[in-house]
């Protein structure tokens, strides 16, 4: 029922038509509904019938689709029953309009079906074409997709935009021969069809968002359930886990209450001090100290600071022997932050000393091996690179030249890696020395040689440099030019390796009263904020998609930091992930 019929008869949806419209208890005697609903019988056009005491012009037609038949009834008021007035009203509701209304109803039904979206659009378009009789072509453009037959050449186009939530999402187009004009019924039909399609697109969008939200909430619920189960398991194991720590720890663990009486005394403490847990529980912990007053002094410091670490002291065993110990003492608190007592972890210093000496011996062997291997490797790679460079200059076969080029670049990478390892070995082996002298022109003696060293690996690199970050650095400075060249070679190499091709690499220097500030900047992916401190650690490399296919040792920035600190300066990183990264360092004036 449309709005006019509701205004005249009231909302009769769901009620029998002969009761709601004609006010009768039985089927209207003049009604052809039975025949029409079964798919046979002629349509009723312009018949005068009485409905609720008034005369109306009635049009009734059977609408057929592949699912089920419908009956469409058009009811029009007749001002008087004269033949002239009846004829006049008949002219106002021609059969073509009835056909368009029936097609429009079928369009609506197809759009409301449960078929896939594309299938619904295609089915609805069939009935749009049926309703626009005489059109050459009808098609639908929606979200960059075309439904229907869009010709290469069109005649006169009648276009209705598809609006969804106030935005244009597409258009419904009917093409006629050049001389054809669109009649009002066709304009109305095209507007209503476009409106129905727009509302169906809006409904489909809402369903898609609903499904996404449902899936997201389902995953969230699953994650919450998994987390709750994980935490439940963790809480169930926590007591046993803590007991395991006390039982299995090689260090002595002793806890006390607020009166300094021993509460827990683990097996290592029993083994080292010779007491059983039953013997000492409830006794003052100061009885285990060679100097009981020392424990009282330490306790005052623990209350102020929250704890002490690696404090060298002496404890005594049950037999009166002295044990050299390293103590870490902290306050023991509950979930509300109230102090329950103390927990002390005491290490056997003799064992630790032995382990430290063994570690120093192994470290020394490691350093010497790294130094020897990389020194020999670097020399061999330099020779290989030299021969390959000469062969590349004389090779004329393109395929062989490309293969040799690949081998040459790999050898240069290995040479740079060996150089990084050698610098690291010298830094850690004690051979690293800073030989400072007056650098008269920092740019010519440090920055420019670092560029030349990279020119072979990055032939077009210098097109990226400019002076936008503070000048080229033509300053005088006390420093080791060879070591500072390593700094710039590594910073330039990283900037060129990780920059975006279309973005710049810039460097510069600014002068301050007591120091110089240097920087190397490049546009590119940058460094995640949680990794800006870690990148200066040995062997550390940024872990993300931008570095996965980039080769490196993780030693360059570590070596740079050691060199800058040896000059009395410091280095740090500033970044905006996804846009740029800037490495800055300061060197003091002398």
List the helices and strands and how they pair.
Blueprint: H1 3-9, H2 17-20, H3 33-37, E1 44-51, E2 54-63, E3 70-77, H4 83-92, H5 95-111, H6 117-131, E4 137-142, E5 145-148, E6 156-164, E7 167-176, H7 184-248, E8 252-257, E9 262-265, H8 267-273, H9 277-280, H10 292-305, E10 307-316, E11 322-333, E12 339-348, H11 349-394, H12 398-429, E13 437-439, H13 442-455, E14 477-479, H14 481-498, E15 505-511, E16 515-523, H15 556-566, E17 570-576, E18 580-588
Helix pairs in contact: 5-6, 5-7, 6-7, 11-12, 12-15, 13-14, 14-15
Characterize the structure shown.
With 590 residues, the protein is of the alpha+beta class. It has 15 helices and 18 strands. The protein has helices at residues 3-9, 17-20, 33-37, 83-92, 95-111, 117-131, 184-248, 267-273, 277-280, 292-305, 349-394, 398-429, 442-455, 481-498, 556-566, and strands at residues 44-51, 54-63, 70-77, 137-142, 145-148, 156-164, 167-176, 252-257, 262-265, 307-316, 322-333, 339-348, 437-439, 477-479, 505-511, 515-523, 570-576, 580-588. A five-stranded antiparallel β-sheet has the order 9-8-12-11-10. A hairpin with a 4-residue loop joins strand 8 (252-257) and strand 9. Helix 5 packs parallel to helix 7, helix 6 (117-131) packs antiparallel against helix 7 and helix 11 packs antiparallel against helix 12 (398-429). The longest helix is centred in the middle third of the chain and has 65 residues, at 184-248. The protein is elongated. Mean pLDDT is 78; it is low at 79-94 and 466-470.
